[in-house]
Amino acid sequence: MRKINRAVKIRIYPNAEQRVQIEKTIGCSRFIYNCMLADKMEHYKKEKKMLRNTPASYKKEYPWLKEVDSLALANVQMHLESAFHKFFREPSAGFPRFKSKKSSRKSYTTNVVNGNIFLEGKYLKLPKMTAVRMKLHRPISEKWKLKSVTVSREPSGKYFASLLFCCENQTAEKRPAEKFIGIDFAMQGMCVFSTGKRAEYPMFYQNTEKKLAREQRKLSRCQKGSQNYKKQKKRVALCHEKIRNQRKDFQHKLSTSLAESYDAVCVEDLNLKGMAGGLHLGKGVHDNGYGLFLSMLEYKLEERGKYLIKVDRYFASSKICSIWPTRRSKNAVTRKAGIISPPNFSVSPVRNRTIGQSFLILYFSNRLVSLSKADGQHAFWAFSASLRHFYSSERAPEPDAHSVLHPSAFFVSLHTIPYAKPDSRNE
User: 114-151 burial, b if ≥16 CB within 10 A, otherwise e?
Assistant: First the structure.
């Protein structure tokens, strides 16, 4: 069985002396990073070669670097080297930049060597300091081996430790899927399911926006650098932290329930960054946190031996009828009313366009991957049953063997049917 790394983030409660040591280590790590980066840049300008410098070479000039953990400084060197490797491999990532004392993330990473870091009851032993009190919210297996610890300080002043363990892979074996569900992104409520239900995301940022604006106005009136400025800055950070925690809590609960209830989840691979920046939907897209939700859903389904199927972002889910697989022209979709109605069909149209798109995502995903032994037949009849359950008016006749296409042929027909010619009166 292969080994994997698993991280557990816990909150720690250092005393005054321990906080001083943590802040020293964070500051020395930032200082070493900036010094090594500056020397590398200067050496390359002169010699046209990369300088191989180490943190140990700076301890003679700056003896106070010996007061902090040496492994934390060694990890700084590894982070800088990885930043250069990423830049040479992907220039779009950007050249490594200097770390700011005010805006950079306050953290450092240290490794376990000869038992210098260990858990003991309600305390965590870290190098160069006494045992720190912690809150362990979940049990740690004795078979897990501790590899490293990342200590961080949030803008609100809270301290956390991320424990990285090496453990055996507990992923379940893949099995044929029987229960499917399609998910489509929605600005209100985060997402809509093919069952006709919404996620009912409470939009935490929008609900707290007035309070956050009030606290930020108070901060702008304080004198920068004063004690009142620091106190008010902490209040603003606490507002942002509460919104972030509420969002993560909702997404964890929703992704866990979906991973437990369904064997395959079908989603659309969207360009969320482009939607937030190019369509003036930044607040709504970022408030939903849809990308983080999909990443949570992916690893939870993977652990249970289930499937996350991603439909291509260029799949025209808004142009294909959710009842009859005809790809329609741009003028044929009524976006304002949110209605997708097929021509010459006896079933009532889908009154919510997003629900119809979630149906299509569920359909098209089974065209990409055949997960069940019946070549997608389970998903086909689950789709039909959900349609009959959703409509409350005129029902479609029960399908028979001669009038219904085979599921695989129906999935192929989604892309083989050409665009319908627009009406001359609408041109």
Answer: eeebeeeeeebebbbbeebebeeeeeeeeeeebebbbb
- The length of the chain, given as a count of residues: 427
Q: How many CB atoms lie within 10 A of CB 20?
A: 12
Q: What pLDDT sits at residue 284? A: 80
Instruction: Evaluate whether 281 touches 271 at the Cβ level (below 8 Å).
Output: no
Dihedral pair phi/psi, residue 118, rounded to 5°: -160, 160
Output the six-digit token pair for 142.
């004795």
Q: What is the mean pLDDT of each run of 10 residues along the chain (427 residues)?
A: 86 96 96 95 90 92 94 95 92 91 90 92 93 92 92 94 88 80 84 84 91 96 94 95 94 93 86 77 83 91 87 63 49 41 40 50 49 41 44 38 33 32 38
pTM confidence score: 0.74
Whole-number Cα distances in Å, 378 to 233, 361, 363: 55, 15, 11
Query: SS3 for 145-169, per residue?
Result: EEEEEEEEECCCCCEEEEEEEEEEC
292: Cβ contacts below 8 Å, ≥ 6 apart: 247, 248, 251
The span from the CA of 96 to the CA of 82, in Å, is: 10
Residue (of 16, 424, 357) closest to 187 by Cα position = 357
